[in-house]
Amino acid sequence: MMTTTEIETWRKQLVSLARQYDKRTSDLLEEAAHGLGGESGGGLSDSPIHLGDLGNAQQEEEIDLTLMANEKRLFEECNAALGRIDAGAFGLCEECRRPIGKGRLEACPYARCCLACARLRESCEAR
Question: For 67, phi and psi rounded to 5 degrees?
Answer without folding.
Answer: -60, -40
